Amino acid sequence: MLAVIAVATVAMVIVVFLFVPETLAPERRSDGGIGDTFRTAGALFKNRAYVGYLIAIAFTYGAVFAYISASPFVFQNVFGLSVRWYSIAFTFNALGLILASAVNTRIVYRIDPARTLIVAQTTLFVVALVLAAIILTGIATISTVLPLTFLLITSIGFTIGNATALAMTSVSRAVGTAAALLGAVQFTFGAAASPLVGLGGEDTAAPMVAVIVVCTGLGLAALLRTRRVVASLAEDHALSPQSAEPGARS
Question: Which CATH number belongs to the domain containing residue 104 in this structure?
Answer without folding.
Answer: 1.20.1250.20
